């Protein structure tokens, strides 16, 4: 109840609001620690590892404004803009009974597969930037490479998903995809994910029986 409407009153609250929120939080901190009543509220927060109520509601207000209300905030509050924040989907990508089969997504190490068209995906994040890539092999020859540079705030999970998404849009042929990131691998089989890219990927894998995904421990 306390977080209701935070995007209106807690984006940049005055000092009086901060003090009021600390006053509300203080009795609970004292009860949890059993400390003397004269102990400073900030000390109780540090001891318990609980952020101040003001900071928690301030974060909730910014997330709500950017993700749900699509409102651009001043640079003094955040450097993020609505277009840079990933928005979740509502509902499932498919009924659980329609999830990809074990033949399409397998936990078996596919490093021993050397025939047919094979695609190896990868992602990296260093101080120089974030990138996604895949490499297409036919037999023993490399026939295609794809590289993409993402923004510094993108995660490895997002870059791996981007590479997988582009792989599923390749021309219609029987292909084997090998990934070294188990998180993205498992996401492709998760019909309940709210991630937009995951849902698009899951639909592609389910609709295209020509695609098989394996883990590759050698990367």
UniProtKB/TrEMBL annotation:
Annotated TM spans: 28-54
Alphabetized UniProt keyword annotations: Membrane, Transmembrane, Transmembrane helix
Gene3D superfamilies reported in the protein's UniProt record: Ribonuclease H-like superfamily/Ribonuclease H
GO molecular-function term, one example from the UniProt record: nucleic acid binding
SUPFAM superfamilies, per the entry: Ribonuclease H-like
Protein name per Swiss-Prot or TrEMBL: RNase H type-1 domain-containing protein
């Amino acid at each position: 109840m306390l977080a209701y409407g935070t995007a209106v009153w807690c984006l940049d609250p005055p000092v009086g609001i901060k003090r009021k929120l600390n006053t509300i939080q203080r009795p609970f901190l004292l009860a949890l620690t059993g400390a003397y009543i004269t102990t400073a509220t900030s000390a109780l927060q540090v001891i318990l590892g609980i952020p101040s109520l003001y900071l928690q509601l301030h974060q909730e207000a910014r997330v709500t404004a950017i993700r749900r209300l699509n409102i651009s905030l001043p640079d003094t509050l955040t450097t993020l803009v609505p277009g840079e924040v990933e928005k979740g989907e509502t509902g499932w990508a498919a009924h659980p009974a329609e999830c990809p089969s074990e033949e399409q997504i397998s936990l078996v190490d596919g490093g021993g597969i050397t025939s047919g068209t094979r695609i190896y995906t990868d992602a990296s994040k260093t101080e120089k930037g974030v990138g996604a890539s895949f490499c297409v092999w036919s037999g023993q020859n490399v026939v295609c490479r794809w590289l993409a540079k993402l923004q510094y705030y993108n995660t490895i999970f997002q870059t791996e998903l981007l590479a997988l998404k582009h792989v599923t849009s390749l021309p219609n042929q029987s292909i084997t995809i090998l990934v070294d990131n188990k998180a993205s691998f498992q996401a492709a089989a998760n019909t309940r994910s709210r991630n937009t890219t995951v849902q698009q990927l899951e639909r592609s894998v389910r609709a295209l029986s020509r695609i098989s995904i394996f883990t590759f421990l050698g990367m």
